[in-house]
């Protein structure tokens, strides 16, 4: 399917939407049971709510939802039909393909704009406002276990910056029960969603596998977006203070020849301030961060199978082989040669 055909299908009205636009309403009485959450009465959706066509036939006869391994569901939201405040047992990722979508999430008004993503934790109370004629929003409903697996893929082994960002993402989600990604200008994310939806509406023989891989790419790109959001939040909170993410990125790129003093000078802070900042934000000292990066690169070299253990150690600046062997075993739980045998 080409993007033009995808746009046509997404814009087409279902019979239900035509009824809603004419003043008809959808009864949510059979969608679940009412319960109290944070002192408010909300609707708990039935667990199988999105395994079939949601409140009405899909537009143009296309399927309205798809289930993948009972862990991931995709659906397009109906227009002209607001959704009352509700909760559900799965994680939900909402994406505005076109226009905008007003929502109330955990007691706060949130306007989700075109190409933005909203990630909702399970059991997070939220309501969806009425979508207009030109508004298109799709949701990916997934298990928490699948989301964790995708985040592990993003880590790329022992990437402690990814670990740091994932920990920050989890902390933000735990605090607010949702995260909005300011991805409105991200063209790559839009292409990933378009490819995913094309495969969804016009499935190939390997549709489930392709959709899962595209979803993993979406998660990886959202982590890039979140890193930018994190840096912006740091600047807002600390004024012109140094960004720990920028420092960590610099260390990753210059670990072979950078020094604490040199990094501090580059970011216009004192070595003592930089050392304390890294320890407070990452839980590690400057030397530990540099050593972690050296060992991670050595592990990558060993995984290719093209270099000896000694060559890998020397490539990352270790001349004392005994010290290298000890640190590698501490980091990876085995000797370098055994690590290579496991992967090659």
Report on this structure.
The chain has 344 residues and is an alpha+beta fold. It is built from 13 helices and twelve strands. The protein has helices spanning 3-11, 15-21, 144-155, 160-176, 187-201, 207-238, 244-254, 260-266, 271-282, 286-304, 309-315, 321-332, 336-343, and strands at 32-37, 40-45, 65-68, 72-76, 83-87, 91-98, 100-105, 108-113, 117-120, 126-128, 136-142, 178-181. A six-stranded mixed sheet has the order 1-2-5-10-7-8, with no helix packed on it. It has a six-stranded antiparallel sheet with strand order 3-4-11-6-9-12. A hairpin with a 2-residue loop joins strand 1 (32-37) and strand 2. The longest helix has 32 residues, at 207-238. The chain is elongated, with a radius of gyration of 24 Å. The model is unreliable at 49-65 (pLDDT under 50).
Short account of what is shown:
Helix content is 49%, strand content 19%. By secondary structure, it is of the alpha+beta class. The strands form two sheets. It has a six-stranded mixed sheet, with no helix packed on it. A six-stranded antiparallel sheet has the order 3-4-11-6-9-12.
């Amino acid at each position: 399917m080409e993007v033009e055909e995808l746009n046509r299908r997404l814009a087409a009205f279902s019979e239900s939407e035509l009824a809603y636009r004419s003043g008809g309403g959808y009864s949510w009485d059979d969608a679940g049971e009412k319960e109290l959450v944070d002192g408010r009465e909300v609707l708990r959706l039935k667990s199988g709510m999105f395994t079939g066509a949601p409140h009405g036939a899909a537009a143009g006869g296309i399927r309205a939802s798809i289930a993948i391994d009972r862990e991931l569901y995709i659906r397009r939201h109906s227009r002209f039909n607001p959704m009352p405040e509700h909760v559900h047992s799965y994680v939900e990722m909402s994406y505005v393909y076109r226009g905008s979508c007003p929502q109330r999430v955990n007691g706060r008004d949130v306007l989700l704009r075109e190409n933005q993503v909203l990630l909702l934790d399970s059991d997070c109370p939220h309501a969806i406002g009425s979508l207009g004629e030109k508004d298109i929003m799709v949701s990916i409903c997934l298990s928490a276990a699948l989301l964790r697996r995708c985040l592990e893929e993003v880590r790329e082994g022992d990437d402690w910056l990814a670990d740091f960002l994932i920990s920050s993402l989890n902390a933000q989600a735990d605090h607010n029960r949702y995260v909005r990604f300011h991805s409105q200008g991200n063209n790559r994310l839009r292409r990933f969603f378009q490819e995913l939806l094309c495969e969804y509406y016009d499935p190939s023989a390997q549709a489930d596998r392709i959709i899962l891989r595209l979803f993993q790419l979406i998660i990886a790109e959202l982590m890039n977006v979140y890193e930018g959001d994190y840096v912006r939040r740091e600047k807002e909170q600390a004024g012109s203070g140094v960004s720990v993410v920028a420092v960590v990125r610099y260390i990753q790129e210059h670990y072979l020849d950078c020094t604490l003093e040199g990094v501090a000078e580059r970011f216009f802070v004192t070595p003592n301030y930089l050392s304390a900042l890294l320890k407070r934000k990452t839980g590690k000292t400057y030397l530990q961060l540099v050593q972690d990066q050296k060992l991670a690169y050595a592990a990558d070299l060993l995984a290719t199978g093209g270099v000896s253990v000694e060559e890998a150690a020397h490539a990352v600046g270790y001349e004392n082989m005994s010290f290298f062997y000890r640190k590698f075993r501490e980091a990876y739980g085995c000797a370098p040669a055994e690590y290579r045998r496991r992967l090659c």
